[in-house]
Design brief:
2 domains, 11 strands, 306 residues, alpha+beta, 10 helices, seven-stranded mixed sheet, Ribosomal Protein S5, domain 2, binds L-homoserine, Alpha-Beta Plaits
């Protein structure tokens, strides 16, 4: 095989109660990438469609992660990358994570799979680092493994696959304002109170148990963020209204997707998801901010060959 086309999903990270450690992928939204082997060694980005991103190998998330893989194995060939971006950078639904995972997955497939998924996650984290100036794998792990993932540790990297209850849907609203991950990390306090930390531990433990037992009531009680949301929600117009109205209508939970500005709600079943989507739309229709919405099942697949 000399050429491959791959799809890498958008992802929701943090998921209210698991800042920097929890995430899941969407089924219907994501980026595509074509990677081709070349006889000349090295890496070149030949096309970027969708959004403006750097062609320089040291500045593009996809090539930085691909380079980390190449440096590790030194293959006897090079690679050309075509990027078809569908996820807007800075949206909070794992745009950089999708780029970082597509390239390492594609090159690994072209080389006959010398690396396992955990190793690919490690390479992709190098790309994610240049987008956010911090190491975290809560978008990358779900984009590689599929389903709910808990990043148990970064050094050494340990990723746990959690069950995904089959009726679970996600609704996303993406207000078209830009919040850079580095900025929305910058506004976070460096320390948290012991009582907030304790509450957060119990929420995350509750959600993990709820996922294992498909206990939707426990899920609803656990999707709370005592650490991050109060700081970042100030950057997202109408956040409180999105959250209160979607939960009043029956959503299981609603919080900021990744570092924002996207906001997600989890629902049981598609009908409720469509209902929540219309609530999200009606909240934002009153403002002059453009927005996009998505309804998706939570995907049990990560990046795939198409
Ligand atoms: N966990 C990260 C954050 C995700 O919230 O900053 C953004 O990439």
């Amino acid at each position: 095989m000399n050429e491959i086309r791959v799809f890498s999903p958008a992802t929701v990270s943090n998921v209210a109660c698991g800042f920097d450690v929890l995430g899941f992928p969407l089924e219907s939204v994501g980026d595509e990438m074509v990677v081709r082997k070349t006889t000349k060694k090295g890496l070149v980005i030949t096309k970027i469609e969708g959004f403006e991103l750097p062609f320089e190998i040291s500045k593009n998330v996809a090539s930085v992660s691909a380079q980390a893989l190449i440096d590790c194995i030194n293959p006897d060939c090079g690679f050309e990358i075509e990027i078809y971006k569908k996820i807007k950078p800075g949206s909070g639904i794992g745009s950089s994570g999708a780029s970082a995972t597509s390239s390492v997955y594609a090159i690994n497939e072209l080389l006959g799979r010398p690396f396992n998924k955990l190793e690919l996650t490690n390479f992709a984290m190098k790309g994610e680092f240049i987008a956010s100036n911090s190491e975290h794998a809560d978008n990358i792990a779900p984009a590689i493994f599929g389903g709910f993932n808990l990043v148990k540790s970064l050094h050494p990297l340990q990723v746990l696959q959690l069950p995904t209850p089959k009726d679970l849907y996600v609704v996303i609203i993406h207000p078209q304002i830009e919040i850079k991950t580095s900025e929305s990390r910058g506004i976070l306090p460096k320390t948290v109170s012991l009582s907030d930390a304790t509450k957060q531990l119990s929420e995350l433990g509750g959600l993990v148990h709820a996922l294992h037992t498909s206990d939707y009531e426990l899920m609803k009680n656990s999707l709370n963020d005592h650490l991050i949301e109060k700081h970042r929600s100030k950057l997202i117009p109408h956040f409180d209204e999105l959250q209160s109205k979607s939960i009043a209508a029956g959503a299981i939970g609603c919080s900021i997707s990744g570092s924002g500005p996207s906001v997600f709600a989890l629902t049981r079943g598609k009908d409720m998801a469509i209902n929540v989507e219309s609530i999200f739309k009606s909240v934002y229709s009153k403002s002059n901010i453009n927005f996009a919405t998505y309804v998706s099942k939570i995907s049990s697949n990560g990046v795939v060959t198409i």
